[in-house]
Amino acid sequence: MLHYRRCGFAFPESQAFTDLLREVLRILDDAKVHLPPLHFLFDAGPNNRAGVRMAERFPELAAFGRKNIDPAGPPNYGPFSNLDGRWQGCTGIEAEATRQFVLHLVSGIPSEFPMWITLVLLGPLRWGAADGTDLEPREASMRLAPINKAPFSGLSPSMTYLVPGIILQRVSMYGLRMWTTEQLPEADAPYAADSLQTLLKRFGPPETNSVHSVPESQEVRVGQAASAEAAKVHAEFKNQMKDIVETLALPYRVPEPREFGQLPREPLGKIRATIVATFKGDGWRAAAEKLPAGTHKLWKQTPGGRRMELAFDTGSWSRHVVCAMALFSERGAARIPIPADSGLRLQYLTPNPHVFGGVLGNMRRVVLELERTWMAAMEAAIAEAQ
Questions:
Q1: Other C-beta atoms within 10 Å of 7: how many?
Q2: Which of the residues 135, 201, 229, 339 could staple to 381 if both were Cys, CB 3.0 to 4.6 A apart?
Q3: Are the beta carbons of 355 and 255 closer than 8 angstroms?
């Protein structure tokens, strides 16, 4: 497991981004913490000309952005960023930016350039443990990311990106925030770095202080972005779902919504046991974890050694069933909904055991087909990308 301690700070509206960044840099310099090149993201958001004005003021910034030509309006710029391909929606321009350049850019935010998102990353850092036992900094995703998306988000870096370092972010609707992160040898390890303690004393006490432990498989190395081929395969199957279902000749005719008023209502009995029994013959097993009421999960291992899950929502008071299948890999998770008819309603009312069993039977047939096709194609695409 990889362990990280993260502290969060919120600042008043009067706090200038540029002043905060200067103060953080000063503390790091005084502590002799080696600082790698800064990374940034400036996103004006839709229908906001701040990006154009910023590029006009700093012509060298244009190299870090995408110019969007909208036939219905004037040209605008997409996000300016030097974050790599592991970040959602970023340009992939990984040019270095000097400290002074970034300080100049943020000096006009938000008064002159009202950006939707302003993000500056300082790291990965070696904080400098007092005993000289600094860990090698490792970047990880806080959650297993969808396979068709990059793992890190500029809108929510504190919820997606783990690395020893500092995140400075201003989002127009939330204000200015800062997060410090220290990588730990164990989840219950004490603070080890004097330089980080100095920073915490200057801005503390933090509003949030938590330890995040994630599997080593969620480490995301430079150059390890989402698999483009796997994402393409995933999108194609989702788009073809209606055609796939229509070829299966499903055994049960799911009642139309207008018919449910005439159907008898009876208790469904042991819902989880019925789900397990329906899929058990195909190798699916009940998941061991404790789940909230109205939710159920099955799992199995793929031929490629990856984990697949079927997640069911049967409601805590209403009588319905929704199902999705997920494939988990070192590059993320891919989820695909499981329909029980070619109408792709996805949520099916189940007023009695007969309808419930019929819907589950149809879903089982769709799952078998997707294991044969979607799962096999996804595993091939993932393996090819490795």
A1: 21
A2: 229
A3: yes
